[in-house]
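Schema walk-through. Below, the input block comes first and the output block second. Nothing else is stored per chain. Lengths vary across the set, and this one has 118 residues.
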Amino acid sequence: MTLSSALAIVVLASASASPELCRGLESQIEPDMRILESDLSQSAAIEAAQKLKDMIARDDLAGEFQFGALNQSKIIHGHILLRQATTDREEFGPNSAESRESASSFCTWLSTVGFWYD
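--- output ---
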């Protein structure tokens, strides 16, 4: 593979990467408490699921541990909504009813309940 071929692949790959779905969203959440789209990656959801599984196994769900468990649940929930919106955009197109509906659901969640517990 030549350097120009490799460069073309990198440019095409970055051009097809989807921008944030909720860019420019007016959030009702304090800036330092907001969950960001970048917090909701597949790897973050897998890690959150493992942490939550461990917390459940240790019965660390009450008292000082309650908010940690709820934060892990939010990562998983947010990832599922983001994944659905991304899939709908890819499958049906960004202007489709399916894409608009799932993106709206995700962005509404992100701007209203997408916050970290202390």
